[in-house]
């Protein structure tokens, strides 16, 4: 039997499901009408029952307690009130997004191109997974300067670790050619990720950047072996610097 509940605050409901307490922000709340109902949950085929909070339906969409779902899947769920962030699973330490820094310079030749973040169609996509933050280099599998593009950042020795997700953008998912990303610190090659191919799942990387003053990320197309010129978009996604 449905239990009609009028005038609830959506923000309050979601917060109470996560924290077990009610929070109210008058400047951002909206009154809505929802329907609570007895929902059944099966996680990997097993029946699960929330210890607190109930699911509800709003405008045809079902909302369920985030903490219950996360912990049922073996993931911890934590609310960071200072930053307004919900952490599900591993919580990262303090970090700076690389693309939030002003780059020192970038080098491209001819029709090669570089961009930071999703500037054109709103997304960077690898194997069907969309990302909003990252650096993408457009290069060509030809002999010549258009095979490479690079971007530099002055880190000034402030960071110890760089993490990122790398892959071939779906804009080049059918290309036969493969690509490479090189991470260079103060002229020294720190990491090479090669044989990036369209349609492959993205990979997570971690790079030691302790004491690095200048960081350079190089996007490179592999040489042309079939005399067919192909455009490669190579993505360096969600890059984060840790102190």
UniProtKB/TrEMBL annotation:
Domain Glycosyl hydrolase family 98 putative carbohydrate-binding module span(s) in chain numbering: 92-243
Signal peptide residues on this chain, from the entry's feature table: 1-25
Keyword Signal in annotation: yes
The UniProt record lists the keyword Signal: yes
SUPFAM superfamilies per the UniProt record, alphabetical: Copper amine oxidase, domain N, Galactose-binding domain-like
UniProt name for this protein: Glycosyl hydrolase family 98 putative carbohydrate-binding module domain-containing protein
Top-level taxonomic group: Bacteria
Pfam families (UniProt xref): Cu_amine_oxidN1, NPCBM
Organism: Paenibacillus harenae
């Amino acid at each position: 039997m449905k239990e009609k509940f009028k005038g609830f605050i959506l923000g309050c409901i979601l917060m109470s499901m996560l924290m077990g307490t009610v929070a109210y922000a008058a400047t951002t709340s909206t009154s809505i009408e929802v329907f609570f109902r007895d929902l059944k949950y099966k996680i990997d085929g097993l029946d699960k029952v929330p210890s607190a909070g109930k699911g509800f339906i709003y405008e045809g969409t079902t909302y369920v307690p985030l903490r219950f779902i996360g912990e049922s899947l073996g993931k911890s769920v934590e609310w960071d009130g200072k930053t307004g962030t919900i952490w599900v699973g591993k919580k990262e330490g303090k970090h700076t997004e690389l693309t939030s820094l002003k780059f020192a310079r970038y080098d491209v030749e001819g029709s090669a191109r570089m961009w930071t973040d999703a500037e054109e169609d709103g997304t960077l996509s690898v194997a069907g997974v969309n990302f909003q933050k990252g650096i993408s280099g457009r290069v060509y599998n030809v002999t010549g300067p258009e095979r490479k593009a690079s971007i530099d950042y002055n880190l000034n020795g402030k960071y110890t670790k760089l993490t990122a997700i790398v892959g071939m953008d779906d804009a080049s998912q059918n290309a036969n050619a493969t690509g490479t990303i090189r991470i260079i610190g103060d002229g020294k090659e720190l990491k090479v990720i090669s044989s990036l191919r369209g349609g492959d799942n993205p990979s997570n990387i971690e790079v030691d950047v302790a004491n690095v003053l200048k960081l350079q990320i190089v996007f490179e197309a592999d040489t042309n072996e079939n005399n067919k010129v192909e455009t490669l978009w190579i993505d360096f996604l969600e890059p984060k610097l840790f102190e």
